[in-house]
Amino acid sequence: MVFHLLLLSLNLLRRCVKKGLSCYILSSMKPNNNSVVCPAELAIQILSGKWKLYILKNLMDGKKRFSELQRAIPGITQRMLSKQLRELEACGLIRRTVYPVVPPMVEYELTEIGKSLEDVFNAIHKWGLKYVEAMSINALECQEENSS
Predict the structure, then answer these.
(1) Segment 89-147, tens digit of pLDDT
(2) Which sign, positive or negative, has the C-alpha torsion 48, 50, 53, 58?
(3) If I label 47, which of 12, 73, 86, 99 is the partner at 20 to 30 A Cα–Cα?
(4) Nearest CA-CA partner of 58 in 104, 9, 118
(5) Distance, CA of 113 to CA of 60 (rounded, Å)
(6) Residue 138, Cβ neighbours under 10 Å: how many?
(7) DSSP per residue over the chain, as a string?
(8) Are 80 and 51 in contact (CB under 8 A)?
(9) Residue ranges per domain, the chain?
């Protein structure tokens, strides 16, 4: 299992490099020939950013257009959403499809590796519930999306 995760992580890293983009992951992780990339650190680097988890969570429901994402994530600017989408696409977590229509239509959706983050989101949700209970926080009702 750990070996499988390491291979997936390295494939994501290679994909970022192959696209010729100055991948943000490489700026903080400078592996040399003798080092092994820690899968947890790589995942943290890929998912870090104020808005990336919000974007990925919104795409769990299926394809979304840029404007739909912007409406679903209050507070994110058009520039920041565009930047975060480009980074997620460069690392292979989302796919961008441009349709040849006027006006241009662009949709974003999760790739298979992006869809595999659903278990991570479920774990975060469960942890959040435990945290709220343990800290006696009066949290807003959270819709149980996975109970159906």
Answers:
(1) 999 999 999 999 998 899 999 999 999 999 999 999 999 999 888 887 766 555 444 44
(2) negative
(3) 99
(4) 118
(5) 12
(6) 5
(7) -HHHHHHHHHHHHHHHHHTT---HHHHH----TT----HHHHHHHHH-STTHHHHHHHHTTS-EEHHHHHHHSTT--HHHHHHHHHHHHHTTSEEEEEE--SS-EEEEEE-HHHHTTHHHHHHHHHHHHHHHHHTT--PPP---GGG-
(8) yes
(9) 1-48, 49-134
**What distance in Å separates the CA atoms of residue 92 and residue 86, rounded to the nearest whole number?**
10
| β-sheet bridge partners, residue 59 | none
Residues with Cβ within 8 Å of 40's Cβ and at least 6 positions away in sequence, in order, are: none
Q: Is the CB of residue 62 less than 8 Å from the CB of residue 15?
A: no
Q: Give the tens place of pLDDT for each residue, 76-88.
A: 999 999 999 999 9
Amino acid at 38: C
Q: Are 106 and 98 in contact (CB under 8 A)?
A: yes
What top-level class would CATH report for the domain 49-134? mainly alpha
